[in-house]
Specification:
single chain; mainly alpha; two-stranded antiparallel sheet; 2 strands
């Protein structure tokens, strides 16, 4: 007869190895982003697209500063710098919290809907990029 291997349980939750690692990584990234300069031109240029295109802004430009402004509580500045980054930060935070609390349910949901979620985020990111360029918030890359 085959033996059944059961996951250990703590306070009604199954224990998964490294399930708190994403939460720790997000917290660390937010701390680092919180110490980045908040100004438009503060700090080094981290975007390879911007470096190699001669200064053109990509859809993610301003994301590090936007996360830093969000961590510092300045949501107005965060949305001005990059509204897509704030939306992604909210989604990632909610996803990590859900995965930490109920990893089996979160994994099953993600496995069924990953392409839809990623596709919707790419569509929203590109739409915001085009809209911000057309309003003159960011410079045109061409």
């Amino acid at each position: 007869m085959a033996s059944v291997v059961r996951q250990p349980r703590v306070a009604g939750l199954s224990v998964h190895r490294n399930r708190y690692l994403p939460a720790a990584a997000l917290a660390g990234a937010c701390v680092v982003a919180g110490y980045t300069p908040a100004g438009e031109n503060g700090g080094p240029t981290l975007c390879p697209y911007r470096v190699f295109s001669g200064g053109a802004w990509c859809p993610g430009c301003g994301a590090t500063r936007a996360v830093g402004s969000t961590v510092r509580g300045d949501l107005g500045a965060a949305f001005h710098l990059n509204p897509w980054a704030v939306l992604i930060l909210v989604q990632v935070t909610a996803g990590i919290a859900w995965f930490t609390r109920a990893p089996d349910a979160a994994s099953a949901w993600w496995n069924q809907r990953a392409n839809l979620v990623l596709g919707a985020n790419v569509f929203v990111g590109l739409s915001l990029w085009i809209a911000r360029m057309s309003m003159g918030v960011i410079p045109h890359p061409f």
